[in-house]
Each structure stands twice: as structure tokens, then as C-alpha cells.
Amino acid sequence: MIERVGAIQKADAETVWFYGYGVYQGDTVPPESIGGMFSRLGIESPTILLDNGYTVYGCECWWAPEDEVKQMIENRAVITVVPGRPNTASRPTAADGGLCPDH
């Protein structure tokens, strides 16, 4: 069964920084540039292939089934974030709920 999901980098009361919608691909070990120590230890993270062709990992975003993400976004402004591109928005850290280690 294909599970459609949405991936959000971060959000506040007015804005959602959004990676996009895609398909959950199972759990894999992310590249070290994304997962840091978790990758070196072989710890898997949910893997999402976005409709735009990019891949994001659960350790770098908040993700949920597509319908839940649409409800969460509601009427907020949406800023599309391109994974791996600097200067689009800051990556989540442990301090603001991200699961990847800071590096």
C-alpha cells in the first residue's frame, strides 16, 4: 500500500515551511550529511520521496499522512523549502523539535 504523506520543515502560528507531499518509502539510513552520528551508527529514519523528486528523512522534518498535514496547514502561509538548499529556512534542531543532531 502506498502511503501519501506531507513533510514540514517547521511551522509557527502563521507560516509553514513545507518540503511537500510524497510517498513514504520505508525506513533507511540517511546520508551522513543529514543524519550525522545516527547515520554513522546505522540508525534508520523514515524516508520520504517527495513529488518533486527530492528525498527527505524523518529526522529532518515533521511528517504525517497527507490529510493530517493539510489539516495542520489550514490557512497558514506556506513557504516551499527545497531540501538541501541553504538559505531557504533553518533546519530544525533538537531545541525546536528536530530529531537530527546539530552539525
List the defining traits of the structure above:
103 residues; alpha+beta; six-stranded mixed beta sheet; 16% helix; disordered C terminus
What do these coordinates show?
The protein has helices at residues 32-35, 37-40, 66-73; strands at 4-11, 15-28, 45-50, 55-57, 62-65, 77-80. The termini are far apart. It is α+β, with helices and mostly antiparallel strands. Strands 1, 2, 3, 4, 5 and 6 form a 6-stranded mixed β-sheet that branches. It has one domain (4-96).
Report the order of strands and helices: EEHHEEEHE
Number of separate helices:
3
Mean pLDDT: 84
Radius of gyration computed on alpha carbons: 13 Å
Please report which band the strand proportion falls in: under 5%, 5-15%, 15-25%, 25-35%, 35-45% or over 45%: 35-45%
Structure class: alpha+beta
SSE blueprint:
Blueprint: E1 4-11, E2 15-28, H1 32-35, H2 37-40, E3 45-50, E4 55-57, E5 62-65, H3 66-73, E6 77-80
